């Protein structure tokens, strides 16, 4: 089995796709007006309009209501990413901080309130843990 994607349900596909394009530096693919994908080597971040959730059954997903999932993106240089993103990110949760498990991490929220963790492995153990991922 291979991990394929995480999908965010939103009422603003264009706005969220633009936000993630800025965060990742990757242009969104748009196979339909109600759907966008940020395709990365390790997996895809899909963004679907709330109308698409109906295709999976009533009340299967509600836009802008996530409070349990953290989208995590590994970066090469956390300090450089912080400087790049700081001027336009609307809600910072945590500035770059070294975590007990060896990652330097920063947390922010996307326009729908989803939590995003950008991190860089910095300890020897963390670097080793992520070397093949």
UniProtKB/TrEMBL annotation:
Pfam families: Glyoxalase. Keywords: Metal-binding. The keyword Ribonucleoprotein does not apply. It comes from the Bacteria. GO terms for biological process: L-methylmalonyl-CoA metabolic process. Residues 2-121 form the VOC domain. GO terms for molecular function: metal ion binding; methylmalonyl-CoA epimerase activity. This is VOC family protein. The lineage of its organism: Bacteria, Bacillati, Bacillota, Bacilli, Bacillales.
